[in-house]
Design a protein that fits this description.
Blueprint: H1 13-28, E1 32-39, E2 42-49, H2 53-61, H3 67-75, E3 79-81, H4 92-96, E4 101-108, E5 113-121, H5 129-174, H6 181-192, E6 197-204, E7 207-214, H7 218-223, E8 225-227, H8 232-238, E9 243-245, H9 253-262, E10 266-274, E11 277-286, H10 294-325, H11 335-352, E12 356-363, H12 366-373, H13 375-392, E13 398-403, E14 406-411, H14 416-436, E15 445-452, H15 460-474
Antiparallel strand pairs: 1-2, 1-5, 3-4, 4-5, 6-7, 6-11, 7-8, 9-10, 10-11, 12-14, 12-15, 13-14
Helix pairs in contact: 1-5, 5-6, 5-10, 6-10, 12-13, 13-14
């Protein structure tokens, strides 16, 4: 028998597989055959000829379905089933296909076994020593060509991955100042590494919780509470490592329960590390078990770095925006922001009616406090009053430092009774504070309150200021 010819010099994997299989079938003069390659320690059908789609489907759906193929792959030796009906190495699906003989040989390159090639006949066939030797030589020759094609494909895949990484990073960076930042991070992470689901995990004390999820249910988000210690997900945070879990069912009860709820089998997670430390992790989840290469971990970790930078930049932008509207000493809003929100509130009243209320407060005896106890005591009193105002007022109220020792509480869409209730809560808070405090920590403030409708809305702040000073005079204070 002539030696089986090489599949040629093509670098395209599909071409190498098709041409190689055709040459083996034609040279051995058999009726058909198929090639299965190793994919994460299982055989995956990649090419076939002369067999039905139904039989090919059984090979594709059940890796290692043919024991002959499994044996040839693991033993790295040629396996012959000369009579399939009497051979325990052949599956019932092959018998239904009408296959009478099967010869399977390993595709063994210089470094490893890449897969197997099976040649089949529908009638009796005797395989000579020459046939077996030629088949083995063909397997080695084809394996070299496949390995070269796989290497070229891997290089192309890596270039594609780098392009995907750049696209993902660009998408995330474009949304730094958007409410969609977390959603984009999760969607791009899943797309980059072919995952079905993803989650942003945040450190809360000694546990990890799911802050945002993609492709996962709200119930899963609520259930996701994983201890930092003694968990692989926690290891990603504590040790700053990229961690792969190939089968969550083998990682303990908590991991198995979450995997069942989230309907995933494997996961990959990388820490979110900034100059402030590691504050969480990015995780992606797979519906099927998966074997992770070091390259997979590196690619995902690189994207996690981009995600961390985007999240940090968003935080810096938010801090900068806050600095522009907050008073540096007390942490409440400043006068500029108060005037802006007051202008919006007054426009709303002019357009739609209703009322706006104002509390104007002045901290009493600030000069005496500073002269007696020092300016640090005065600053502390201002901060304490600001804190009491924030705690006493509603979420819709705007607490601002107007200047010096003066504070304003703006209450949009609030009538006189509503303003009276807020003022009463402020008085109560100051009184409770003074019960527990000693000089110089006790606070005293003069308060003016005014509610305005559309007719006198322009003077609401001035009127509250006037009433505050009237109260101060009535109390005999300068």
């Amino acid at each position: 028998m002539k030696p089986i010819a090489s599949p040629g010099n093509s670098l395209d994997l599909e071409t190498v597989l098709r041409v190689g299989l055709d040459k083996v079938i034609d040279s051995l003069r058999v009726d058909g055959g198929w090639i299965a390659l190793d994919r994460d320690l299982t055989l995956e059908l990649v090419c076939h000829r002369g067999i039905s789609q139904d039989y090919a489907a059984t090979l594709a759906d059940v890796p290692f379905d043919e024991a002959a193929a499994s044996l040839a792959f693991t033993s790295q030796e040629t396996v012959i089933a000369g009579d399939t009906a009497a051979s325990p190495l052949v599956s019932p699906s092959a018998l239904r296909e009408g296959i009478a003989t099967m010869l399977v040989f390993p595709l063994k390159s210089r470094s490893r076994v890449l897969g197997v090639l099976a040649a089949v006949t529908r009638g009796p066939r005797f395989y000579s020593a020459d046939d077996i030797g030629a088949a083995g030589a063909a397997g080695a020759e084809l394996a070299v060509a496949i390995e070269q094609a796989l290497l070229i494909r891997a290089q192309r895949d890596r270039l594609d991955d780098q392009r995907l990484l750049l696209d993902a990073a660009e998408t995330v960076n474009r949304s730094v100042d958007s409410a969609l930042l977390e959603t984009n991070i999760l969607a791009e992470a899943a797309r980059l590494v072919d995952a079905q689901k993803s989650a942003l995990l945040a450190v809360r004390g000694d546990v990890l919780v799911a802050k945002e999820v993609y492709g996962l249910s709200d119930k899963f988000k609520q259930l996701f509470v994983v201890p930092l210690e003694d968990s692989l997900l926690g290891k990603a945070v504590l040790d700053g490592q990229t961690v792969a879990v190939e089968d969550v069912g083998a990682e303990g009860a908590i991991a198995a329960r979450l995997g069942e709820e989230g309907e995933y089998r494997s996961l990959l997670t990388a820490p979110l590390q900034s100059h402030r430390g590691t504050y969480g992790a990015l995780a992606v989840f797979y519906d099927r078990t998966r074997h992770f290469r070091e390259y997979d971990k590196t690619l995902f970790r690189t994207f996690a770095i981009h995600a961390t930078i985007a999240l940090d930049n968003r935080r810096l932008i938010q801090e900068k925006d806050q600095m522009a509207v907050l008073d540096g000493l007390t942490g409440v809003y400043n006068r500029s922001y108060l005037e802006l929100t007051l202008e919006r509130a007054t426009k709303e009243v002019r357009r739609n009616g209703g009322a706006v209320s104002i509390l104007f407060l002045d901290l009493d005896d600030m000069k005496k406090l500073n002269d007696t106890y020092g300016h640090q005591a005065g600053d502390r009193a201002l901060r304490e009053l600001a804190t009491l105002l924030r705690e006493s007022c509603r979420e819709t109220d705007i607490v601002a430092r107007y200047g010096g020792d003066e504070f304003v509480v703006l209450m949009p869409a609030t009538d006189e009774k509503g303003a009276e209730r807020v003022a009463f809560k402020v008085d109560e808070a100051i009184a409770r504070h003074n019960v527990a405090a000693e000089e110089p920590a006790r606070l005293s403030a003069s308060v003016g309150r005014h509610t305005a409708g559309a007719a006198d809305i322009n003077d609401v702040l001035h009127e509250a200021d006037r009433r505050m000073y009237a109260m101060k005079r009535s109390r005999g204070r300068d």
